[in-house]
Specification:
With 406 residues, the protein is α+β, with helices and mostly antiparallel strands. 37% of the residues lie in helices and 24% in strands. It has 2 domains: 166 residues, Trna Endonuclease, Chain: A, domain 1 (3-Layer(aba) Sandwich); 228 residues, no CATH class.
Length: 406
């Protein structure tokens, strides 16, 4: 490696903040606002690829993080159980360094921020580290040392470690954040209609990741036979439509979902269907303009993040914008047009948090009351719940079974 006295200025890193790449010399790494950055490259899912990408939910950060192999998923899983994890960033930056007069690039796998310091991590199974890999790892170590970070290469785990941690993790998080998964899995340019459709597909799929949407669902979404949302999801390699002779005649659309992360949904299928019905009502309610899909998607996202007991909600502005497929400035314009759904909203400039209050008829709690059924004695029953973006949704099916048993 070329490590002369000016190497910290000549070696550079490329980060992404929003949609814009930013070049920062290695000597300035300790000044980077890590919390505002996003992965420097997107994660892709294709049926013909040999590695195993996906998204792993971390309790420490309350969101999903991308990985490109089983070994990387294991690192995220173990990191979540390590004390003091504050932030995790996949594919944090692209390092450009020099060796023997040639420019070489390398993208480290993870940047982990903990209470005890910052760790730059590469993952490569033992036996698969080639000479060029060792050179890139050494360069990453030098860059980390310059920034005051620690660096390491994870080459594997003892089998009992991953087995035990995976079992514990599966029990502590019963449900995924459906909206959050899609915000990371779908391209940023995916339209509101495709995102509303993807919510229904993700919640109505069967154990083989196949979904069958009746014509009534499409009418409720007010999409009819519009092929564009389906085409967008197919171009994103998120699903593949399957044609059936009977389906074409009665308006039913069947599809095979291709995003393997959806299999992390743990509730029973009827529970997911109940959440799909709730999302359908929220996205087709009368509080927003019928023809404006962006308004309907924003109303759904806000309702899913609203405290059911108070009708108020709070979330990062950028998070809600990602779930709506918008940039923050576009979301602000959409919020201004949701006057018939919102009592009020504001953004805290110091934290970037969005606060809002829904009108009673548009709130999650109002929708919940319409879904509950009490028995003849007037006694309220305790039923299972489903979480969509962190909000508990009652299960109509189990509520009816409870009444029948009385």
């Amino acid at each position: 490696m070329d490590l002369d006295e000016k190497w910290p200025a000549r070696w550079t890193t490329t980060w992404k903040f929003g949609h814009s790449p930013v070049a920062i010399p290695v000597r300035g790494l300790d000044q980077v606002s890590i919390g505002r950055s996003v992965p420097v490259r997107r994660f892709t899912w294709r049926t013909d690829q040999f590695h195993r990408p996906g998204l792993e939910y971390l309790m420490a950060t309350d969101r999903h993080h991308g990985f490109e192999s089983y070994e990387e998923e294991g690192l995220l899983l173990v990191s979540d159980f390590a004390a003091g994890l504050v932030e995790a960033l996949s594919q944090p930056f692209r390092l450009r360094f020099f060796a023997e007069g040639k420019a070489i690039t390398h993208t480290p796998d993870f940047l982990l921020v903990t209470d005890s310091g910052v760790f730059l991590i590469d993952v490569r199974p033992v036996g698969q580290i080639k000479a060029e890999d060792a050179l890139k790892f050494a360069a990453a170590a030098e860059a980390a040392l310059s920034a005051g970070w620690r660096y390491g290469v994870v080459v594997g785990w003892r089998q009992h470690v991953l087995t035990n941690v995976d079992a514990l993790s599966a029990e502590r998080r019963p449900l995924p954040d459906v909206l959050g998964i899609q915000a990371q899995a779908l391209p940023s340019h995916t339209g509101a209609a495709a995102r509303l459709l993807a919510v229904q597909c993700a919640l109505r799929m069967d154990s083989e990741a196949k979904v069958r949407l009746a014509a009534g669902v499409m009418r409720s979404l007010r999409l009819g036979r519009d092929p564009l949302p389906w085409s967008e999801l197919e171009q994103s390699r998120w699903l593949r439509r399957t044609l059936t002779a009977t389906g074409a005649a009665d308006g039913v659309v069947t599809a095979q979902l291709l995003d393997g992360v959806l299999f992390t949904q743990s509730p029973a299928r009827p529970d997911r269907r109940s959440a799909a019905d709730w999302a359908l009502r929220m996205a087709s309610g009368g509080c927003m303009a019928a023809g404006n899909l962006s308004l309907r998607l924003a109303a759904l996202c806000l309702a899913a993040h609203t405290d059911a007991s108070a009708g108020r909600g709070c979330a990062e502005l950028e998070r809600i914008a990602r779930e709506c497929g918008l940039v923050p400035a576009e979301l602000i314009a959409v919020l201004d047009r949701l006057a018939t759904c919102l009592i009020g909203w504001h953004v805290v400039s110091s934290s970037g948090d969005l606060h809002w209050e829904l009108l009673p008829e548009a709130s999650v709690s109002a929708d919940k009351r319409s879904m509950w059924h009490q028995g003849d004695t007037g006694e309220r029953r305790e039923n299972s719940h489903l979480t969509l973006a962190g909000i508990d949704l009652p299960l109509e099916g189990q509520s009816r079974r409870s009444e029948q048993a009385m």
